Structures are given as C-alpha cells and as structure tokens.
C-alpha cells in the first residue's frame, strides 16, 4: 500500500467512497455521525485543493481516503472530561474511510499519518464502535470529549511518541 495526495480528477470517486461509508456506518449502529450528507462534495473538493486530502492505493486502486494536516485544529483547542497527552505540535486525521476491499487499510493510513509527525489527534462519534476499536488497536489513548463546529460531541484520542 502507498499513500499520496488526492487529485482533482478523483473527486467523484472520493464522493462515492464517502457515500458508501455513510451507508456502512448507518448499518453498523452509527447513523448520525455523518448523517445523510457529510462530508459534502464541496468540503472534499476543498480538502483536495488545500493539499490535505490523501488516498491509499493498493495495486494502483484507491482503497481508502482521509484528511491529514499538521498544525493546530480549532476543534481540539478545548477538551472536556480529560486532557491531551501533551501540548506539543501535532497532526490531525479527519474523515478517514476505506472501501473495505483490503484488510488493514485504515490502520495503514493512521500509521502513515503518525509517522509524519509523531503526535497525532483524532476524534470519533460515541456510536462509532468500529473506529474506537481501530484507534485502540493502533495505540491511541482516549483523552476526553471535544465539540465540533456544529456543537456535536466527539470522543477525542491521541497517539504520541
């Protein structure tokens, strides 16, 4: 597997991957994290244009996608019912999904992101048991609660060297 930046000509494929992810999440007890429309096509396009959208390829096929950026994230400025492991500079991963065809693709993406910065933060919905398990399996520590821009509560995790 390899990671690279997403390209503008891949927008429609990424939109379809997120549509499938929403259906998968809804079918596995997590219908409200991304609802019916998140992430919107315009957000995915903005991620690509900003250089923060990445894909994971296996044998030339895109099998996963995610947002990765180094630097502060406003949603992580405040944490409740806990604390971050440290306050050093960090990277963030958002909107990670795979098409389910290659076992371990999401873990590969998370490990790649961690290798870029050595201090990684991520969050997920209380109902997203699959992601919680993935984070635990990959050495992330539950740190507390954060709130997204729309006021939704999320479980916050961090992995640090």
Question: What does this molecule look like?
Answer:
One of its GO terms (molecular function) is acyltransferase activity, transferring groups other than amino-acyl groups. Helix 1 packs across helix 2. The protein has helices at 11-27, 41-50, 105-117, 129-137, and strands spanning 2-5, 53-58, 61-70, 91-98, 119-124, 141-147, 153-160. Strand 4, helix 3 (105-117) and strand 5 form a beta-alpha-beta unit. The protein has a seven-stranded mixed β-sheet. The chain is of the alpha+beta class and 161 residues long. The model has no long low-confidence stretch (mean pLDDT 96). It is globular.
From the structure above, extract its key features.
161 residues, alpha+beta, seven-stranded mixed β-sheet, globular
């Amino acid at each position: 597997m390899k990671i690279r930046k997403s390209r503008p000509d891949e927008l429609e494929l990424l939109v379809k991957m997120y549509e499938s992810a929403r259906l998968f999440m809804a079918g596995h007890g997590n219908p409200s994290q991304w609802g019916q429309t998140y992430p919107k096509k315009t957000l995915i396009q903005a991620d690509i244009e900003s250089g923060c959208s990445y894909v994971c390829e296996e044998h030339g096929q895109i099998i996963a996608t995610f947002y990765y950026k180094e630097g502060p994230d406003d949603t992580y400025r405040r944490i409740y019912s806990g604390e971050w492991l440290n306050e050093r500079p960090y990277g963030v991963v958002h909107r990670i999904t795979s098409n389910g065809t290659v076992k371990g693709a999401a873990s590969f993406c998370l490990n790649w992101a961690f290798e870029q910065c050595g201090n990684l933060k991520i969050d997920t919905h209380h109902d997203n048991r699959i992601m919680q398990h993935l984070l635990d399996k990959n050495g992330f520590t539950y740190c507390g609660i954060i709130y997204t821009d729309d006021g939704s509560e999320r479980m916050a995790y961090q992995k640090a060297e």
